């Protein structure tokens, strides 16, 4: 399970409204990509979904339950950041298992889940290393593995490939697509890369200045952009 409903979500920082009434339905197992220019509110929307930021008004509903007042750790969500956010002093294994340990998951269960995730992400040879001993691509796989072991209903990715070079970006994108097929989990993925959006998404959400310009499948947006803005981002040149 992992359906999500965002109902008229608004978010202001002081006098500045950065989300101006977002409405979105995500069905269980869907891969949804948010695209839009820098500063349009993509990260803020992810943070509101995760509970890292309170909305000013509106509701976030997961599997039919209003989670607007539910703390982040209880929402069944795991988030992967552009900067990996790993603990430098912990091994790969302990980075992956820390959240589960803090939630009092039995050690045998933590090991079982790390075994599965590290196999899926080809991280087995690196489990005893520290982040400084890994490449950028390996670090991002650890960050993804840390999300996987939590068995979330909903994965949130905030520009996870932006710090990687072109070749690694392709590999890691394919791994994320494969993960989606294997886990059948709901994934929401922020990018400003058109290729990532077109290849990963079941559904693309085009954001602009705190509003949704258009929602649709990749080919739908490509062939029938609602306006010049969407065409500029996704559509074929006019
Ligand atoms: P994106 O991820 O699409 O680049 P963000 O969601 O990070 O955009 O930011 C949207 C807008 O909100 C930007 O103008 C940004 O400066 C502003 N903003 C984001 N976080 C804060 C904050 N904690 N305090 C004040 N303004 C913020
Ligand atoms: Mg952002």
Automatic annotation (TrEMBL):
Gene Ontology CC entries for this record: ATP-binding cassette (ABC) transporter complex, substrate-binding subunit-containing; maltose transport complex
Domain called ABC transporter: residue spans: 4-234
EC number: 3.6.3.-
Membrane-topology descriptor: Peripheral membrane protein
MF annotations from Gene Ontology: ABC-type maltose transporter activity; ATP binding; ATP hydrolysis activity
Keywords, ordered alphabetically: ATP-binding, Hydrolase, Nucleotide-binding, Sugar transport, Transport
Localization of this protein: Cell inner membrane
UniProt keyword Nucleus present: no
Keyword ATP-binding assigned: yes
Family, similarity comment: Belongs to the ABC transporter superfamily.
Protein name: Multiple sugar transport system ATP-binding protein
UniProt lineage: Bacteria, Pseudomonadati, Pseudomonadota, Alphaproteobacteria, Hyphomicrobiales
Residues of the full protein shown: 1 to 238 of 332
């Amino acid at each position: 399970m992992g359906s999500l409903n965002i109902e008229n979500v608004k978010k202001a920082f002081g006098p500045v409204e950065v989300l101006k009434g977002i409405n979105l339905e995500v069905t269980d197992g869907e891969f949804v990509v948010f695209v839009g220019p820098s500063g349009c509110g993509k990260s803020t929307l992810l943070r509101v979904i995760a509970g890292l930021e309170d909305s000013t008004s509106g509701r976030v509903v997961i599997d039919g339950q209003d989670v607007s007042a539910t703390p982040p750790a209880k929402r069944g969500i795991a988030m992967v950041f552009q900067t990996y956010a790993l603990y430098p002093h912990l091994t790969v294994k302990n980075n992956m298992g820390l959240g589960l340990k803090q939630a009092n998951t039995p050690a045998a269960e933590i090991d079982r889940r790390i075994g599965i995730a590290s196999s899926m992400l080809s991280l087995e040879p690196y489990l005893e290393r520290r982040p400084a001993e890994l490449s950028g691509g390996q670090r991002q796989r650890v960050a993804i593995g840390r999300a996987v072991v939590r068995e979330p209903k909903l994965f949130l990715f905030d520009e996870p490939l932006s710090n990687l070079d072109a070749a690694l970006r392709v590999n890691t994108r394919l791994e994320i697509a494969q993960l989606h097929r294997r886990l059948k989990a709901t994934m929401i993925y922020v990018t400003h890369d058109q290729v990532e959006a077109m290849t990963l998404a079941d559904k693309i959400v085009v954001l602009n200045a705190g509003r949704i310009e258009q929602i649709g499948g990749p080919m739908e947006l490509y062939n029938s952009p609602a306006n010049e803005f969407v065409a500029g981002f996704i559509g074929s040149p006019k």
